[in-house]
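Below is a filled-in request sheet from our internal design queue. Each sheet records the structural input a requester submitted and the sequence that came back. We keep these sheets so that new team members can see what a complete request looks like end to end.

REQUESTER: design group, bay 2
PRIORITY: normal
MODE: inverse folding
CHAIN LENGTH: 155
BACKBONE (tokenized):
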């Protein structure tokens, strides 16, 4: 089938098999390898991308369901050569070691902050529960998200 959707702000058209998952369309057909293949079963969050503002697990998400919608991947987050505040904060707080979980972490946090402008630590921990980091960078990840929220929304 021919899949048309908006990807990182641009209209995109790609030919896919009906049962293809979004992760493989992004990584394979479209070459966007920022979304990671971790567990492949919906548990780790490494493959998180944004569809119409909501975080989804691309390894489970049927690509055909992206038709006519807006998909944001980590490659589309920086604007005009400027990192998104979340990306900046992850760097400043050393919120990564190997970096494998980082795109999924940042996009899950991005979606969370759209509706939660001044989250406390507890709320961030609860929201990020489904994103796993094998390197155990959780404390710094939470600090980075809190710092980014302050930068984006004040407080
Ligand atoms: S790779 Fe999708 S949730 Fe783990
Ligand atoms: S930084 Fe290595 S998995 Fe999170």
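RETURNED SEQUENCE:
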């Amino acid at each position: 089938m021919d899949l048309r959707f908006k990807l990182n702000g641009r209209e995109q058209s790609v030919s896919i098999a009906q049962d293809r998952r979004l992760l493989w369309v992004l990584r394979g057909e479209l070459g966007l390898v920022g979304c990671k293949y971790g567990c492949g079963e919906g548990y780790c969050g490494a493959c998180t991308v944004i569809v119409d503002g909501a975080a989804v697990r691309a390894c489970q998400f049927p690509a055909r369901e992206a038709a006519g919608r807006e998909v944001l991947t980590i490659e589309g987050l920086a604007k005009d050569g400027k990192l998104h505040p979340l990306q900046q904060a992850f760097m400043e707080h050393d919120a990564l070691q190997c970096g494998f979980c980082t795109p999924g972490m940042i996009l899950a946090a991005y979606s969370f902050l759209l509706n939660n402008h001044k989250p406390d630590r507890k709320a961030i921990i609860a929201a990020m529960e489904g994103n796993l980091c094998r390197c155990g960078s959780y404390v710094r990840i939470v600090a980075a998200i809190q710092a980014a929220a302050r930068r984006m929304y004040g407080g």
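SHEET NOTES:
- The mean pLDDT is 97.
- DSSP finds five helices and five strands in the chain.
FILED BY: M.R.
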